[in-house]
Request: fold
Amino acid sequence: MPADFLPSSAEYLRFLPEIVLTVAATLVMVLEPLTGQRSKRALGYLAQAGLWLALAAALAAQRHPGPAFSGMLLIDGFATFFRLLVIAVAILIVLCSYGYLRREAAERGEYYALLLYSVAGQCIMASADGLIVIFIGLEISSISSYVLAGYLRNDKRANEAATKYFLLGSFATAFLLYGIALIYGATGSTGLTQIRHVLAASQLSSAGLLVSTAVALIFVGFAFKVSAAPFHVWAPDVYQGAPAPVPAFLSAGPKAAAFAVFLRVYLIAFEPVTARWEPIVWVSALLTMVIGNFAALPQNNLKRLLGYSSIAHAGYILVAVAAHSESGTAAAMFYLAAYVFMNIGAFAVVGYLAGKGEQRLNIDDLAGLAARQPATAALFAIFLLSLIGVPLTAGFFGKFYIFRAALEARLIWLTVLGLLTSAVAAYYYLRILVVMYMHDPADSTEDLPPQGAGLKAVLWASAAATLLLGIFPSLILNFINQAAGLGK
Amino acid sequence: MNLLDAVLFLPLAGFALLLFIPREKPELIRRTALGVSLVTFLLSLALLIGFDRSSPAFQHVTDLPWISMPPIRYHVGLDGLSLWLVLLTTLLTPVGILISWRQIDRRIKEFFALFLLMEFGLVGVFLALDLFLFYVFWEISLVPMYFLIGIWGHERRIYAAVKFFIYTMTGSVLMLASIIYLYNRAGSFDYGFILQQVVNGRLPLRPLEGLLLFLGFFVAFAIKVPLFPLHTWLPDAHVEAPTAGSVMLASVMLKMGCYGLIRFCLPLFPVAARHCAPWIVALALVGIVYGALVAMVQPNMKKLVAYTSVSHLGFVVLGVFSFTELGLNGAIYQMLSHGISTGALFILVGCLYERRHSLEIRDYGGVATPAPHLAVLFMITALASMGLPMLNNFVGEYLVLQGAAQADFSWAVVAALGVILSACYMLWLYQRVFLGAASERVAAQVYDLQPRERAAMLPLILLMVWMGTFTQSFLPPISASSQSILEKTRVNQEFHAQIPREVARAR
Reply:
């Protein structure tokens, strides 16, 4: 047994966020049967505390960057950025779940435990440096998400969503695993850097087909996770069926983590064979933007509309991946940060307005919200304007950054077409604004319950972040630009 | 803090201030909005003090870093081209607030807050000297206008608002692509820096590259101007908007497009601009005649005025793309004149609507009897709008025609048709609305101008006369700027003609 087989204390420190999250999740599980129905909320507070501790741990880990556990993990700026992001997502989701679960009479500990496990998986994905660890992280994150999607077990739509998500998700994971097996066969390694060296050294003559197949299969797996066309069909159904905080979570946390591994695998391991995958990503990005934006146009269900919108936004981020450059990576990172806040904000508003049993999800149910609840409407408007990409919001700067990277990489047509689809997108977001601000108040907005403190915190914090990142993007840009090098 | 920054940010501060005034106090909200806009106007007048009228350089410049990577700066400044446009904006904002005083009777707080936010965006567009900053303001001004039309407009307001937003957005994303591309080539968003590189020939663009970049900007501006056949959003937006919205739309927002053409399209892409000029002029001429003809047969007053804008702004585009100094001076003068006279027309039409609750011409007739002052002011404005000498539009139209004639006499001939037609539709409108016997309902409902309406109209009428008679008060800074812009397009053309392949090969 080699001497460095036993991990050093620094390596444990680098793994601390995942440890904290797992311990907190297990604690919630253990305490769940011991708490009465009245005090379930306390479990939520415990989860919240665990998340804040994990956030601190992630920051502490960043002070000691480096590999851990025989090169299975790599803690660098990139990993820390995504860890912080997914943990922040979970904090916001937990905050807006208190009121939601109480309203649906579904406050149980396993909700928070599953959420924490899922985040732990995403943290592993963010810091994974090998295909096997990526797979493990992805599975931890996904399996918890499948269960979360069907969390309201008496709700037919939620059950349908969970089943669909699970079946399709399993297929996608199988593709991914098959791809990993093939790449191991072709290169004899699952470590990202080793794969890169082997691919760069070999002329790809003998193993060319094998590598191409593997790259394509892994792409299928990741494309499913980020809901990129043509592997996006699950997203609208799942987003519509699952309880509102869950799609908010799915469209933010797992997606960000999936993009993190996407970027790491394709920009590090498969960098020598860029010519083989760039066209695939190019086509997929365009398809995703077109399908997402055009399919959202006729939607009347708010959750479904946001589902298609999240597909479209995945398309924008794929443009940044297709640029396969440092600035492309930075753009994807910034966009994900921006997207997380505006999207969670939007979903939080929708979940709040839907009312008990989520009965009011039609766009027309928002009629006259601006007259009844000016503040809620104004916050929702900020999220929507950011999703459209109006300047001084994070969404605009994110788009700007992505298309700048794309033009730098001479993806001119992708840029022009992508920007035009984003003009199309304005239409369906505007529809919501129109109903909120320009229609006469309807009964549906009359008897809205007061907002809980958690929900309020989520809305104001998300709006503040959306505006702050839009007006002063430099706040995080410097860190992102340093981290985007991926240690190359 | 520079005076110019104060002019720019005061409306934004006013917007924030209004958000904190409780909505139960409408009078306080109105007064605050008016106060803020008046102070902004006075501050903007102070910009004239010490303004070097003969220099084409940017004055009152502030240049601060904003975003580190990519380097984007808060860089604003004023030259002869933007000076009057800024003053036009700051003047028309209090005017718009005055006429909305009673007209806007619901959601007062939102209205006035958005109005000030729009002023912020509009002033910013004319001041920005960083392409990214320009785009930011360009889009910011769009959002309040969308809400103004959509919330306080007439029946088909939602259709008009969404159409307005989507049209402009489509144009501007193409401009964004061009801006980013230009940044990747030049390494900077700074207008002055990029311009310097273009003039020095250090930013050689392949013909197709230059053409596409030019078109990216041009389409965005042409939609906003609006140039035929991209004008179809304009009648809808104008007709459905509340009066103050129509005023700002016609007087200032359309000028954003014209301003962009002069500021960016001409000097940054001189080769492509000259190359496309005949086509663009053809569209402008079609717009002049088409707009006038369509205006003539409109049964709706607001729509009529909207189509006159299509016609009048055709003159502006014609002047710009005649590539003559007279033409360019005329175009800029026409922009200002059109802003004053069309703004006044919309105010007066709005006054009529407020009394009779109809925009249809056939519902009027003989208004001059119950409302003589209104009739007189409308007459003056109509005469100004049709280009009567001694009034403002004449100067601009004359200069444009002269410039167009220098470039190609046939252009001037066609454009002159527009002047003739403008007399037809304006006088015919006046006759049908104001002359004849007043019907019972008109006599019962229409009353003369109220003090607040007079206060709003007075500065506009004064300016019509002033701009028509004392041209020299306004023209020198315009002339200095247009000279320098034309010089840049010329230098570059010769430069491109002179340096043929050797330089390219060496590179």
